[in-house]
Amino acid sequence: MDSEQSDKTGGDNGDGRFLRLFVHHEPALRAYARAIVPTWDAVDEVIQEASVVLWRKLEHLDADENFLPWAKVVVRFESLRARRTFARDRLVFSEELLSMLADEASEMEEEELVLEKSALSLCFRKLSPAHQELLLAPYAGSGKVKELAGQSTRSVNSLYKLLGRLRAKLQTCIESELASVRRLSISKGNLQSRPQ
User: Fold this and answer.
1) C-alpha to C-alpha distance for 113 and 99, rounded to whole angstroms
2) Quick check: pTM over 0.85?
3) How far apart are CA 41 and CA 86, in angstroms?
4) With left for phi above 0 and alpha for psi between -120 and 50, is residue 16 left, alpha or beta?
5) What is the pLDDT of residues 108-157, one digit of tens each?
6) How far apart (Å, rounded) are the C-alpha atoms in residues 109 and 115?
């Protein structure tokens, strides 16, 4: 068996690939499942079952970029299977309605992610290169903030305090950008709905 094949069938690299993809997309998959099943406990069960199926069938995934749509199909099937156990409850919607709601939630979620990524990119570019480097330092490995402190006249503690302020500033900027986009979207919607 060649290394590429063992990558996809469960060797250490295949496990790492699966974990990386699954952890990255788990919040979106949980939200998608929640649009179909009635409780968060059911979501936990669905995600657990779906993760086993996804891991077993990872070799069928042709490209990492296709993981989320592929995983959503598996989550949908597992959600519908779990939903059948709730079918006796009068508050459970039909499978057709749930599929429509899940599709709509998925589209909205993807649009929201694109907007958030755009806002993050825009706000990040507004920061100085030194501040950008500091914001990325905790993700570059242990000791990077200490290394930056050694290269400057600041203490490690003061850099962590600055890091907290920069994160808050970045969050405020992102929220402001998203609010602007939403206001613009609402304005466009109001203009389009007015009779000419």
Assistant:
1) 21
2) no
3) 12
4) alpha
5) 667 777 788 888 889 989 999 989 888 888 777 777 888 888 888 888 89
6) 10
